[in-house]
Amino acid sequence: MTKVPPFRVLLPRDALLRRTAEVARQIVVDHAAEPPCLVAVMEGARTFATHLARHLPWRDPVHEIRASSYGSGTVSSGTVKVLTGHDIPADGRDVLIVEDIVDTGRTIAALREHLLASGARRVGVVALLSKPARRVVPVDIDYLGFEIPDEFIIGFGLDVAGRYRELPDVVVYDSEVERSALGWSTLG
Ligand code: IMP
Ligand code: MG
Questions:
Q1: 156: CA distance to ligand 2 center in Å?
Q2: Which residues line ligand 1 (CB under 6 A)?
Q3: What is the residue range of 125's domain?
Q4: Residue 28 within any structural domain of the chain
Q5: If residue 96 lies in a helix (H) or strand (E), which one and from where to where?
Q6: Which contiguous run of DSSP H or E holds residue 21?
Q7: Is 188 contained in some domain?
Q8: Looking at ligand 1, which atom is closest to the CA of residue 136?
Q9: Is 134 domain-assigned?
């Protein structure tokens, strides 16, 4: 992408990286006895999980799971399907789901059920961001980066319809800012 619209920065990269390191340290302290099975929710959590893993001493790979809920827009469809990750060795393990953002809570709730059904002993949640005002399904987040207000955000791995994942900071998506910056007449 050549031109980036001037979206408002909510969380600058240095704060995201600092907090990610703190969260990792806490996970290590709490899992001294046995490494957890880490499961990152693709694609959004890829960036967070990559930075998190740099601070973890375990050699096990971070597993990837994919769930569908949003389609291509900014509004959740309400139903969540687990698309990949059926081969994750969760049986008997202490599993930690690594998620970019907990919004309604539906994705985490569905993935928890899925991983428990796969034999996980316990399923915990690591989330970079949480929008508590949007919660529909209650979710316990064991490790949280930041609570944020009810705004649609992008960057640091988060996207809108596949765009802006590569932005270094977490910024607030605004279709008007995008439209005027990019000279779009209509928004698909
Ligand atoms: P939930 O099931 O409503 O909790 O939605 C969680 C998923 O929706 C996350 O994994 C994100 O992929 C996506 N999502 C929720 N809020 C945002 C946002 O503000 N920006 C980008 N993606 C979001
Ligand atoms: Mg996601």
A1: 12
A2: 41, 44, 69-70, 76, 99-107, 152-154, 158
A3: 11-153
A4: yes
A5: strand 94-102
A6: helix 13-30
A7: no
A8: 3
A9: yes
